[in-house]
Amino acid sequence: MDEDKRIVIENLTTRYPGTEQPQLRQINAEVHTGQVVGIIGNSHSGKSTLCRVLAGVIPKIVSAEIEGDWHMFGQRVSDNWPVYNAMNGVVLQNPADQLSGLADTVADEIAFDLINQGMAEGLIQKRVEEVATQMGLIEQLNLRPESLSGGQIQRLAIATAIAANPAVLIMDDPTSEMDSLGRRQFFQWLAQVKETTVFIVTSEIDDLCEVADVVWVLHEGQMVAQGRPGEVFNHLAADWQIPAPTIQQLAQKMDWHLADGRYPVNDAELKEDRYVHN
Amino acid sequence: MSTIELNHLTFTYPERSFSLDVEYKHFADPMVAIVGQNGAGKSTLFKLLTGLLTPQTGVIKIDGENFNDLKPVEKLLKVGITFQNPDDQLFNPTVQREVEWNVAQVMDDHDTITRRALAALKRVGLNDKTAENPYDLSLSERKLLSVATVLAVDPAIYLFDEPMMSLDWESRRKLTAIFHQLADSGHQVVTITHDMDWVAAEFESVYVMEHGKFGFAGSPRELFSDHELVQRVGLLPPRIMDIAESLGDSQTYLSVNDYWQKNRDV
Fold first, then answer.
1. Is B247 found in the same domain as B178?
2. How far is B257 from chain A (nearest CA, A)?
3. Which of A184, A243, A274 sits opposite B169 (nearest CB)?
4. What is the mean pLDDT of each run of 10 residues along chain B (266 residues)?
5. Domain residue spans in chain A?
6. Residue A176 is nearest to which of B166, B239, B247, comparing CB atoms?
7. Domain total of chain B
8. Taking every annotated instance into account, which residue ranges of this chain make up the domain ABC transporter (chain A) (predicted)?
9. Both B241 and B219 in a single domain?
């Protein structure tokens, strides 16, 4: 396949200076344009480190020993950082740390990157309003970023990350501080995102199964499973300590199988299951 | 069991339109969940319950005593709080010192302080990380550490502000077990949460806050049976109810087990 349509990770191992164990061990994966990749695992599984690598934060900002290779659509951090960086929208844990600290208002914060890119003023305002609407922040545009709640700051970080229409969106637990309605709206938004390739770390398994094309399971730095949500969750190992989605738990309890013997993991599969049985 | 009683409690922030106004409320159950939208007054209530804010009128009574008349140490032994963001309360150079610092606010004996700290760390599963810097822990672990700081003091009443938020699954299980252990051992646990699956599955007593006042009080089953109320106060029903709904069943279910028990013979 044409290298330019893939994101490829090959034998990636990383180790932070001063630590004995690597945070990521021999990761191999391939992602195609427009896919939504869900990254799951417990503490110290390497999820956040993998996000940092994909975003180029490692090695550009945080140093680490790196073995192996990765590229996004043929671009590598080491070849051309500005080009690589411009492809990515990034939302890391603790989004408050990510705010520029320079903007007086939510609108200015969202516009920050667009101004730096030299976008025309009229277009900037239009784009700011578009993404603020998508993230439910249209009423907050004139507020100071520091005055927002934790969930609103996460939505602001996402709005800022998507403002410049990045080809790749990398989000590390972007809904952790949102309330249940905010979380639902976020995943509804994510479900209709097209063309952008998305990496999302989340513990919201139910929501993830509705939107993810692929799920990666990390455990102690290793990629222990990758595949479609229905495949991965039907083959969970006990020591990963990852729960099955609620639909699958229900189906197991009620003994509702799909035609291929698997249990359904999302709404579409559940309805398929009912169709098969009734 | 020590319980919290609120009587004619009001609080208004300067320069903000929000005000808290509680006529009378007595939390009588061992495990109490307080739910409601952002801005409903839940966190303000907790700041009043820990003495971080002082009510403009009214009293908070614990075991019949006026909370604001207690000495600082007595307050710490009555009510302990775990904040939503653990980084708001962690500042010591090691995990063990963090917990010891809290216990040292209520007692002097060094050996007891250390013993209590280590026991609390064991309870949350951080006993092999005592020498680490709190900021080298994962967010889940930092949250468990903040829980350990309160466990080590062992107040009569535990307040938790969004305890499940940002926890990984293993930590969620661990903390849920600790909640039940505390309730079973005569403590009261009062928690603010947005996690309706958790409320439905684990709690018997829910209070809804709306615009600075208490509205509904009752069991999760009563709450989630009232679809109009749930929608009005901006809550989502437990996930199992969404799933049932998508199968054309609009009954109230609190968990997968609950659904199974009602439908296994159908």
1. no
2. 8
3. A243
4. 92 84 92 90 90 92 91 94 87 95 96 97 96 91 96 97 90 96 96 95 95 94 96 93 94 97 87
5. 1-242, 243-277
6. B166
7. 2
8. 7-245
9. no
Q: Determine, for residues B166 and A177 on separate chains, whether the beta-carbon distance falls below 8 Å.
A: yes
- Shared domain check, B194 and B64: yes
Residues of A with CB under 8 A from a CB of B: 42-44, 93, 149-151, 173, 176-177, 179-181, 184, 203, 206, 241-243, 246-247, 249-250, 253-254, 267, 270-271, 274
- Do residue B229 and residue B244 come from a single domain? no
| pLDDT computed for residue A1 by the predictor | 46
Kindly report the backbone phi and psi dihedral angles of residue B26, in degrees, each rounded to the nearest multiple of 5, phi listed first.
Answer: -125, 115
Read off the CATH number of the domain in which B217 is found.
3.40.50.300
Q: What pTM did the predictor assign?
A: 0.90
Å from B162 to nearest chain A CA? 9
Residues B171 and B161 in one domain: yes
Instruction: Report the chain B residue with the minimal C-alpha distance to residue A207.
Output: B239
B243 touches chain A (CB under 8 A): yes
Residues B121 and B240 reside in one and the same domain: no
Nearest to B260 among A180, A203, A254 (CB): A254
Task: Tell me the nearest-neighbour CA distance from B58 into chain A, angstroms.
Answer: 28
Look at residues B120, B119, B177, B166 and name the one whose alpha carbon lies nearest to residue B143. Answer: B166
> Bridge partners of A216?
A39, A226
Judging contacts by C-beta atoms under 8 Å, the chain B residues touching residue A150 are 84-85
Determine the topology of domain A1-242 in CATH.
Rossmann fold (3.40.50)
Q: Whole domain around residue B250: which residue ranges? A: 236-265
As for the ipTM of the complex, it is 0.88
Facing residue for A242 by CB, picked from B140, B169, B246: B169
Do B76 and B108 lie in a common domain? yes
> Are B125 and B244 within one domain?
no
pLDDT at A274: 63
